[in-house]
Description:
Number of strands: 0
Number of helices: 13
Number of domains: 2
Shape: flat
Largest sheet: none
Low-confidence stretches: 324-333
Order of helices and strands: HHHHHHHHHHHHH
Amino acid sequence: MSNPFFTRVCFITLVAVYLLILVGGIVRSTGSGMGCPDWPKCFGSWIPPTQLSQLPPDYKTKFMVQGKEIADFDAFKTWVEYLNRLLGVLIGFLIIITFIASFRFFNSGYRSVFLLSGSAFILVVLQGWLGAKVVSTDLAVSVITLHMFLAILILFVLILAFLKANQAYIEKINPQQLTTIAPWIVLAGSITLIQIFLGTQVRQSIDEVSKSFAAAYRDKWIGQLGIEFYIHRSFSWLVMFSHLYVAYLIYKIKSNLLNTPWLYNLVRSPLICIVIEIVTGVWMAYGSVPAFLQPIHLFFAVLAVGIQFGLICITYHTKLFAPIDTRTISLAP
C-alpha cells in the first residue's frame, strides 16, 4: 500500500528531528539552555526581548528558577533557545500531519504505520513536557539526558513507520544481501548508543568545569575532567574498531550490494559518520573544546545510529513488515 504524501511528510519530519538534535546541541554548547527562564513563553512574552531595556528592573527575581536568581540577560542565548523551541513547535505540527496522513493505513494490513505514527505523536507530546521540565529544573542533567534519548526514540519510531509505509519497495531487496553483517551492525549501533550516553556524562562534567573556569580558560577544561572523560575516550576505540570490522565485512559482500547502489552507499555511511565523530572528539580533547564542534560531534553519532537502525529494519523486513490482515485476526488457539 503506497501513500506518497505520508512518505514525504514522514521524511521531512525525520529531517526536522535531526535538525532539532543539532540545534539542541548548539543550545547546550553555547550555554543557552536557560536563555528563556520560563516556558512556554520567554520572559513572560511570546516574542522574546532583544535588549535589556525591554525587561523590568527586577527581571532576575521575577523569573527566578527553583528559588534562584537567573543570570544576566543575554540576547544571543535567549534567541538561540527560543529558536530551538520554535523548531520544536514546527516538529509538533509535522508529527500531527504525519499522524493524520497515517489514517489511510488504519483499515489495512499496514495498520502498524498508523500505530507507529500515533506513538510518535504521543512521544513528541512527552518530549514537549520534558522540555518544560528542563527549564523548571534549571537544566537538571538527568532530565536533559532523558530529553535527548527520547528524541532518538522518536527517530527510531519514525524510521520504522517510514520503512513500513514503503514495504512494497523494501520487499524488493534480498535480505541475504545484509544478513551476514546485520548482527555486527546491531553490535556497532549498540556500542555507539552507549558511547552517546557516556558522552552525556562528559558533557555534564564540562558544564560543571565551565562554571569554575571561564571561557577564556577553555584550554584548562579537559584537564579538570574526571574519570568519565577517560572512559568515554577509551570507549571510542571500541566504537572505531567495531565500525572498521563492519566496513571489512561490507567490502567482502560488496559484489552482492552493487546491484543496489543506494543500499551500498547507505551501508557505508555510518562509518563516515563515526569517522567525523571521532575526529571532532579528538579535536575537542586537544583543541580546548571548541563550542561549535560539540553539536557536530553529537549529531553525527546520532545520525550513524539512526542509519544503522534503518539497516536492521531493512535486513529483517520479512519479520518486521509481515502484513497483518486485521479482519482475519483470531484469538482462538
